[in-house]
Amino acid sequence: MAGEGTSAPEGFTKGADTYDEAVRHNIAGSERLVAALPDGAYRAVLDVGCGTGWTSAAMLRRHPVERIVGVDASEGMLERFAAKLHDEFPGVAVELRNEDVMRMDVPDGAFDAVLCAMAMHWFPDKTGAVARMARAVRPGGAMGVLTTGRGGELEWQEVLRRVGAPGAWTGWFDENQRDVDEIAADMRAAGLEPLDVWMERRRRHTDPDAFMARTRAVAGHMLGNPPGGFSDLDQRILRELHASSGPEGFAYDYCKLYAVARRPAA
Q1: Is 211 helix (H, G, I), strand (E, B) or coil?
Q2: What gap in Å lies between CA 80 and CA 19, rounded to an integer?
Q3: Of 148, 127, 136, nearest in space to 45 by CA
Q4: pLDDT digits over 237-249, tens only?
Q5: What is the C-alpha to C-alpha distance for residues 74 and 122, in angstroms, rounded to an integer?
Q6: Residue 2: partners with Cβ closer than 8 Å, 6 or more residues away
Q7: At CA 70, angle to CA 191 and CA 183, rounded to 5?
Q8: Taking CA atoms, which of 22, 196, 230, 247 is between 20 and 30 Å from 1?
Q9: Helical H runs in 15-125?
């Protein structure tokens, strides 16, 4: 299978330099997620699957955060995170941990807010990940999750089917997208009270080359691209994206799932 032998953390490390530009829509989504948190004194924040730090940056612009712990399995992403927050928010205490969500070494009940933006769909055990993150929320604190929503990207899935992409691609959507009821149930099972869970569905028209650049940034580990080059799968997908595009580019629907919950006060 193309991409076999390359892990998701390795893929994200390779794409770290171009990641922010490729996922600018996700950055805007993080800002909406942070804005949806309930009123509170968010001094200590845990950012899980923190990437290059744009969710933490959104939190810092809105709240008087004193300490942020960022957890990500990609070292390259953490390096970008460190540089970004040091330059823009030099007075904030930042601790970065190169760890997986299920094995992160953070204390229970220590954070006013736990955030996870556009990372949960890469976690193999999503219910377990919600439970692990919830443990870190103090009584009265909040958790916010942004992930891929069920039902979107049908046009993209059709492109992958037409090029004969491996099952790891075509089966990814059913396995990793989540719906409103699913994530709300996970939050309740983890001892949290869901406050606001909603889905955004947007129609996008994107230049096919730009869409492919985004794919390489967020799913490069699945393409099997060699250093400085492109795999046969990569190029077949790119050709089909161009063939499927109209005057306004490649048109597709994208669903984002937002979930905000609170741990009841003791």
Answers
A1: helix
A2: 10
A3: 136
A4: 999 999 999 999 9
A5: 12
A6: 166, 222, 223, 224, 231, 232, 233
A7: 35
A8: 22
A9: 19-22, 24-35, 54-62, 75-88
If DSSP codes are grouped into helix, strand and coil, which group holds residue 45? Answer: strand
Kindly report the CA angle at 48 between 100 and 10, in degrees rounded to 5?
50
Q: Kindly indicate the confidence band of residue 7, based on its pLDDT and cuts at 50, 70 and 90.
A: very low
Angle between helix 180-189 and 126-135 (nearest 10): 50
Distance of CA 56 to the CA centre of its chain: 13
- C-alpha span between 30 and 145 (Å, rounded): 9
Q: With residue 260 as reference, give the H or E element that holds it.
A: strand 250-262
Mean pLDDT of 155-165: 96
92 SS3 class: coil
Per the model's pLDDT, the better-predicted residue between 129 and 78 turns out to be 129
Q: Rounded to an integer, what distance in angstroms lies between the CA atom of residue 215 and that of residue 39?
A: 36
Measure the CA–CA gap between 258 and 93, rounded to whole angstroms: 27
pLDDT at 132 > cutoff 90: yes
Q: Per-residue pLDDT tens for 16-72?
A: 444 455 456 678 899 999 999 999 999 999 999 998 899 999 999 999 999 999 999
CA distance 257 to 182: 11
Report the C-alpha gap between 139 and 222 in whole angstroms.
39
Domains in the chain: ranges and CATH: 8-262 (3.40.50.150)
